[in-house]
Amino acid sequence: MRIDLHTHSHVSDGTDAPAVVMAHAREAGLDAVALTDHDTADGVAEARAAASELGLEFVPGLEFSTRHGGQSVHLLMYGGDPGEPALAAELARVRDGRDDRTPRMLARLAELGMPLDAAEVEALAADAMSVGRPHIADAMVARGYVADRSEAFAEWLGDDKPGYVDRYATPLPDALALVRGAGGVAVVAHPWSRTGRRVLPPAELRRLVAEHGLDGFECDHLDHPPANRRQLHGLAAELGVLATGSSDHHGAGKHAAYRLGACTTAPEQYRRLRELIDERA
Ligand code: AMP
Ligand code: FE
Ligand code: FE
Ligand code: ZN
Q1: Is 281 exposed, middle or buried (0-12, 13-18, 19+ CB in 10 A)?
Q2: Whose CA is nearest to atom 15 of ligand 1?
Q3: Burial of 227 per CB tally in 10 Å (0-12, 13-18, 19+)
Q4: What gap in Å lies between CA 75 and CA 98, rounded to an integer?
Q5: CB 157 within 8 A of CB 133
Q6: For 109-137, how does the pLDDT look when each residue is reduced to its tens digit (9 = 90+)?
Q7: Residue 268 parent element (H or E)
Q8: Structure confidence by residue, pLDDT tens digits, 60-104
Q9: What is the whole-number distance in angstroms between the Cα of residue 83 and the centre of ligand 4?
């Protein structure tokens, strides 16, 4: 059984409709797949219906933008009720922070000699509930400023690049409380990706499990070198929490290596996840 628990559609910064992501998952030989758009579950109904038609097992999810130790941390929520009022209100606040940032980033890019109209970004983000840097990158590509999203991030939009502008994200402990309060299962996405081990060292992951109800972490992810994957698996086993693996597929919006099924979750971990989702429903 092949299981991929982290994918994006054009409801956030992926490039395919939710139903198309599911069709591609089937073509990629997956048996179970989650849709985890940034800060919204709006694509879940379409994905669930498509998965059912295709005979794919489906896990509803989202990827919550949080902040911890001054750094961005992505928290995956599986199951639960994304419409639970406190959670829904906070996700709306995060999406508003995305919308507020876009004109500020466009002003910055104009200063850098790359003017763009808000309407150009809006057109490219027409299907998105959560607008982000990838949509601005697409507008830069359309104008010929850069060749692709990767170049836009590497030169201008990345966290330490001149076009970067900060946005609101929920403090991680608050996000954990909201996810658990809505009956969701909370798994940190790619905990040791871009910022390495500094923000979430093993002691901090241990504390988040013990004190804040963290249910697991994504161990197998392309952003983690093999030694880090092994260490994360060891820690998850020691703590008795979920160890997942996923592609973080964004359609054509991310490097081709992030193809569906590029990393997968072990069947026994998937069964435990489903049990937790059912227990909390
Ligand atoms: P934002 O949500 O606006 O803060 O933008 C962050 C998003 O940009 C992440 O969710 C990634 O999907 C995407 N991203 C980050 N780095 C790259 C890259 N090098 N190429 C393509 N997409 C990227
Ligand atoms: Fe993304
Ligand atoms: Fe992420
Ligand atoms: Zn993601």
Answers
A1: exposed
A2: 153
A3: exposed
A4: 17
A5: yes
A6: 999 999 999 999 999 999 999 999 999 99
A7: helix 267-280
A8: 999 999 999 999 999 999 999 999 999 999 999 999 999 999 999
A9: 20
Write out the two tokens for 226.
Answer: 């093999």
Residue 175 three-state SS: helix
Strands in the chain per DSSP E: 3-4, 32-35, 57-68, 71-79, 170-171, 184-188, 216-220, 242-245
Cα separation, 179 vs 173, in Å, equals 10
d(CA 205, CA 217): 9
Residue ranges in the chain whose pLDDT is less than 50: none
Give distance in angstroms: CA of 56 to centre of ligand 1.
27
Residue with tokens 């809505």: 182
b/e per residue 266-279 (b: at least 16 CB within 10 A): beebbebbbebbee
Cβ density class 191-214: b for 16+ within 10 Å, e for less: bbbebeeebbeeebbeebbeebeb
pLDDT of 195 = 66
Q: Which residues contact ligand 1 via a Cβ below 6 A?
A: 13, 38, 132-134, 149-150, 153, 250, 253-254
Strands 3-4 and 57-68: unpaired
Instruction: Please answer whether residues 22 and 50 qualify as being in contact, where contact means their C-beta atoms are separated by less than 8 angstroms.
Output: yes
Residue 116 dihedral angles phi and psi, to the nearest 5°: -145, 145
Tell me the two tokens of residue 149: 């999203």
Give the whole-angstrom CA distance, residue 197 versus residue 200. 6
Ligand 1 atom having least distance to the Cα of 101: 3
Residue with tokens 């994360």: 232
Rounded to the nearest angstrom, the distance between the alpha carbon of 237 and the centre of ligand 4 is 23
